[in-house]
Amino acid sequence: MIVLEHIMKKIAVLKEQIGRFLHHPYLLQHISAHVIDEDRILLSLSMLESADLSFDEIDGYVVPMMLVQIALDTHDEVTNSLPQQQDRELKTRQLTVLAGDLYSGLYYDYLAKKNNLEMIHVFAQAIKEINEHKIRLYQKDITRIEALFHSVAVIESSLIYKIGEHISLPSWSKFAYYFLLLKRIAREKERLIKHGTSVLFDQMASIVFPKNKGIAKEQKHYLSHICNRYIEHCKEELLNMKLECNELLQTRLSELISNFSVIVKKTVEEG
Predict the structure, then answer these.
(1) Rounded to an integer, what distance in angstroms lies between the CA atom of residue 19 and that of residue 140?
(2) Distance (Å, whole) CA 102 – CA 26
(3) Of 45, 53, 170, 231, which one's alpha carbon is 20 to 30 angstroms from that of 157?
(4) Residues 6+ apart with CB under 8 A from 271
(5) Residue 234: which residues within 8 A CB-CB, separation 6 or more?
(6) Given this model, what pLDDT does residue 77 score?
(7) Is residue 89 predicted with pLDDT exceeding 60?
(8) Chain-centre distance for alpha carbon 19
């Protein structure tokens, strides 16, 4: 219990520090406040603590990493301009772009003030990799299912993955790769159930059924079957890894895996 409370307290402190960087009264009047992903903090914190780093050293990795992630997520929220777009909607879009630029600048400023040019280079490599795979994903340049899931995993995990490489903890990089891919698949399946479509399933359909404009009911089930194979692969990789995970990370992994049983059941019911 003491260890669990220790981890939760550190996550709360890191989350508060990140929140202070994100707080901008004018922006918050016009765009939604960002939800800080505690799983990413938990993953990076668990990895860095396993390297016996001090909390100040951990802070120096986690805070800028989360600022970069939030900057990337913010830019993803920007929708294409529409001819009939209202002035207020256009202003929100413009401010969202500026917010993403601001958060990106904050991570650079944070590391520059600490004279940590090495991590600026590490994160720059991760950002380049993420953007390359996003272009492939959204322009539908991917022709193989395996490459599609790899691109999604890179988009989700590259920042933490690169930190793991930098501090010579490849097993933790691999863990983050599969954990965050599993989490993204969960979101995509939930979107499919709720809205009938998702970025991942649309791209899967364009690869498996390239001549079809829409996805028929039977085809949707087939795509779900393919997706379920990757879910099982991620679960096997994660459960077979011999990492000493703290109690909170073990709990989150169990919750994530259990959640898929509910999602699969919903898929069958909706089918």
Answers:
(1) 35
(2) 13
(3) 53
(4) 217, 220, 221
(5) 178, 179, 181, 182, 185
(6) 78
(7) yes
(8) 18
